Amino acid sequence: MSNLTLAPELSVSEWFNTPQPLSIAALRGKVIYLHSFQLLCPGCVAESLPQVRRIERIFANSDLQVIGLHTVFEHHEAMTPTVLRAFIHEYRLTSPIGVDQADGHSDIPVTMRRYGFRGTPSSVLIGRDGAILHHAFGVEDDIALGARIGMALAAPIPAVKSTEEVEGCAAGVCAAPANAA
């Protein structure tokens, strides 16, 4: 197996623009562009969110799943889900947006920690196999980001093996090789 880093699961307290919660596992087979933002982040409002709208427009007829993650690590009182709902309406954001789950022990939300985001805006491109293809802090050049997304979309959909086809598996149970440490 190659040095793949599988994308951690999302920890979201509330979803907008989707009838049901999304998960990385359920989206396996699609390319995912996960972008982290705060509604009071100037770089997010001025650069990142307009870039996301361009991505949505350009890749509208593909199987790219764009997911926004409202990652509040400062000014918590000012960036509530109620304020976010109004922000989403006013800025006409249409992709699914989750509120990163606070854990009560830290100002840094759960998904932000899991992905190692250093701030906002941040983004992660996740391949069809669930592996992280690219991780960025800040806004990337449109052409470079578009090329990355295009290459990820052009990659073949990985074949999923049943447990019977995987070495060391029988009757749906997989055992580690005897020489595994």
What is the compact description of this entry?
By secondary structure, the chain is of the alpha/beta class. The chain has helices at 42-58, 81-90, 110-115, 142-154, and strands spanning 12-16, 31-37, 64-70, 97-100, 122-126, 132-137, 169-170, 173-174. The protein has one domain (12-174): Glutaredoxin, CATH 3.40.30.
Quote the beta fraction. Answer: 15-25%
Helix content: 25-40%
Describe the oligomeric state of these chains in a short phrase: single chain
Q: What is the gyration radius calculated from CA atoms?
A: 18 Å
Strand order of the largest sheet: 1-4-3-2-5-6
**Structural class of the helices, strands and pairings?**
alpha/beta
Compressed to H and E, one letter per element, the order equals: EEHEHEHEEHEE
Q: Which CATH class? A: Alpha Beta
Number of helices: 4
**CATH fold descriptor:** Glutaredoxin
In CATH, the homologous superfamily goes by the name Glutaredoxin
State the separation between the terminal residues, measured CA to CA. Answer: 16 Å
Biggest sheet features: 6 strands, mixed
